[in-house]
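Fold Annotation — chain and its backbone
Encoding — discrete vocabulary of local shapes
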Amino acid sequence: MQTNDELFIRMNQVDYLFLRSLAEPGINQLEMVVDEAVVIEEKRGKLNSSSLPSELAFLYKDSAPIETTEGCMAFRLYWKRYAAYLVTEECVGGCGDYEDEVYKGERLRLYSKSHFLEHLARDTGAHTEPLLHFKVVCENHIVDVVSEERPTIEIIPL
């Protein structure tokens, strides 16, 4: 069985993730499932652009879909208690100035300094432990989770 640290590394080795589900299975508990996805090279340049205005059809010319396929992994992240979480639609999720933030990881990030942590430090209190900020960067959503503890991570069936 892989440790959380090993699964943190493994999640950061995938090229693409899609958020499959986000649920609160209990009071202040959070469960997230994300699916790995890959570029489907066999379909490169074969996408139907008829649904686009003609002046945008060039966007599909050499494009390839990114999809979850057999052989991809699914990750379940579970926080037994969270302080806050935020789900952002991916198109608007990276448009600010974040040069002063500090984190490790790409798909699953752990921040030591972030605007979200600064906001929560100003806006909340009564935490018994320092807050940890995780960000899961998916193709369809960006999910920020702040908790006093790291999530449990496991690989689950697609």
